[in-house]
């Protein structure tokens, strides 16, 4: 009898342990958030259905409105099953309201990167008519990142030819520092003198390495938002990568004014594109200091004016975004920012920063006619819902250009430095677990 009772108690403890250990995860899976942020004065309620019940720290059950206060700070609530089995905590932070100006402006992105990517390694036809492979024989491989030659840092592709031809006159072998994965290695390369002919038919002899380099990222994107007070901005909504899909390390970078000249519409299996142009340094709008999974971020050099927003708008928390009608702002001709209707068809439950938080579908007839939906260059276009900035367009569905992903604006303002505190990771409520054990023992006595 005692052995059977002991086994029953052990089995009960194991079952309770599994519930406590897995509770926070399946609670999140059914849509109950474990951490919420609210603005001062904002009323918040959770649609809890039996067997879930919520209790404040003093033990009183919370029903109806969960939070409504003007005071900043944090409160913790206990989520339980049947009112006696604690399984998780719900943390509510009252934080200051953040307001920013939505973007929509077309921008040119100019990056000077930390090194140059070697996309291909090939042969060089020397003056003697023989084929040489100087880079390959010196140990350089496709995918390597050239950091420097003879101590000279490399940031732009046009630098390499100039440096090689000036250095090789006095030195047979040139030392390159190369990043390969997480390693920095040294390679000695002997440039080969070869005959070259330019587009005008003029011939010259140059020293060549036998490599093809990727030019640092330069393209057209869209501003997502900017903060007038601090001058901080966010754009693109996704990281800039090289041809191998690796995030580009930025040495310096800038955004410049851009104008959209034409549109190449998207179709199933073939993403469309904005065709734009920009002049460069004379039209600089700001400097880039970060290239993250949520876009590029930096500091504006001059203030903007927005034709649709004379005042900044609130930035929505991820948990405030809902499926339903929304709008995006972007440019499809010249510099004219236009409003287009979309529908948010999916909202992923994210309690921590992660990309692809939203799925949107373009519903605006004019945008569908002109672009076919979401196209390259539209990345970063702000998404607004109920007068709040909720996200930014990031990627198109290749097989259905009317649909695409978006990142939550909340995560983007963290990256921009406008909010400092990231959501806290939640852990198992061990205090609740030991309370259960205490209750079980009291019932057995």
| CATH architecture descriptor text of the largest domain | Beta Barrel
Outline the low-pLDDT stretches: 19-23, 422-445
SS-based class? alpha+beta
Number of domains: 3
The level 1 CATH classification of the largest domain is: Mainly Beta
Let me know the number of strands. 32
Q: Outline the biggest β-sheet.
A: 6 strands, antiparallel, barrel
Mean pLDDT: 81
Q: What is the share of helical residues?
A: 10-25%
Radius of gyration: 29 Å
Short description:
The chain is of the alpha+beta class and 445 residues long.
Give an overview of the whole structure.
This protein has 445 residues and is α+β, with helices and mostly antiparallel strands. It folds into three domains: 2-95 and 424-444, Immunoglobulin-like, CATH 2.60.40; 99-110 and 217-416, Thrombin, subunit H (Beta Barrel), CATH 2.40.10.120; 123-209, Pdz3 Domain, CATH 2.30.42.60. Helix content is 16%, strand content 42%. The protein has six helices and 32 strands. It has helices spanning 2-29, 134-137, 157-167, 365-371, 409-416, 430-444; strands at 35-38, 44-45, 52-55, 65-67, 73-81, 85-94, 99-102, 106-113, 116-121, 124-125, 131-132, 145-149, 152-153, 174-180, 183-189, 192-197, 203-208, 211-213, 218-226, 232-235, 250-257, 259-264, 273-277, 284-292, 295-300, 313-314, 324-331, 337-347, 358-362, 382-385, 388-397, 400-408. A hairpin with an 8-residue loop joins strand 22 (259-264) and strand 23. Helix 1 (2-29) runs antiparallel to helix 6. The two termini are 16 Å apart. The model is unreliable at 19-23 and 422-445 (pLDDT under 50).
């Amino acid at each position: 009898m005692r052995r059977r009772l002991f086994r029953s108690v052990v089995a009960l403890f194991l079952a309770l342990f599994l519930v406590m250990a897995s509770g926070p995860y399946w609670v999140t899976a059914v849509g109950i958030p474990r951490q919420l942020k609210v603005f001062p004065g904002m009323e918040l309620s959770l649609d809890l259905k039996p067997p879930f019940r919520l209790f404040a720290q003093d033990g009183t059950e919370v029903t109806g409105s969960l939070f409504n206060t003007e005071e900043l700070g944090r409160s913790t609530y206990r989520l339980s099953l049947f009112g006696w089995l604690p399984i998780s905590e719900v943390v509510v932070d009252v934080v200051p309201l953040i307001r920013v100006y939505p973007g929509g402006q077309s921008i040119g992105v100019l990056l000077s990167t930390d090194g140059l990517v070697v996309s291909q390694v090939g042969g060089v036809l020397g003056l003697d008519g023989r084929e040489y492979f100087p880079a390959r024989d010196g140990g350089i491989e496709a995918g390597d990142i050239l950091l420097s030659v003879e101590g000279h840092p490399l940031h732009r592709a046009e630098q390499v030819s100039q440096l090689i031809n000036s250095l090789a006159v006095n030195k047979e072998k040139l030392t390159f520092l190369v990043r390969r994965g997480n390693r920095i290695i040294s390679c000695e390369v002997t440039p080969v003198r070869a005959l070259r002919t330019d587009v005008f038919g003029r011939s010259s002899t140059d020293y060549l390495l036998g490599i093809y380099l990727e030019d640092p990222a330069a393209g057209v994107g869209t501003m997502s938002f900017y903060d007038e007070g601090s001058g901080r901005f966010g754009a693109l909504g996704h990281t800039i990568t090289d041809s191998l899909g690796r995030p580009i390390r930025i040495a310096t970078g800038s955004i410049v004014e851009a104008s959209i000249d034409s549109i190449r519409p998207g179709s199933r299996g073939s993403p469309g594109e904005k065709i734009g142009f920009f002049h460069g340094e004379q039209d600089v709008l700001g400097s880039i200091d970060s290239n993250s999974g949520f876009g590029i971020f930096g500091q504006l050099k001059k203030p903007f004016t927005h034709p649709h927003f004379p005042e900044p708008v609130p930035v929505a928390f991820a948990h405030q975004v809902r499926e339903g009608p929304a709008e995006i702002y972007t440019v499809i001709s010249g510099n004219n920012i236009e409003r287009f209707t979309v529908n948010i068809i999916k909202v992923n439950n994210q309690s921590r920063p992660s990309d692809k938080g939203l799925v949107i579908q373009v519903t605006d007839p004019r945008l569908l006619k002109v672009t076919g939906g979401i196209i390259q260059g539209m990345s970063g276009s702000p998404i607004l819902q109920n007068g709040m900035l909720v996200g930014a367009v990031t990627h198109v569905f290749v097989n259905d250009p009317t649909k695409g992903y978006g990142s939550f604006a909340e995560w983007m303002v963290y990256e921009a430095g406008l909010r400092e505190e990231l959501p806290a990771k939640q852990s198992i409520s061990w205090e609740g677990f030991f309370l259960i054990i205490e209750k079980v023992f009291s019932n057995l006595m």
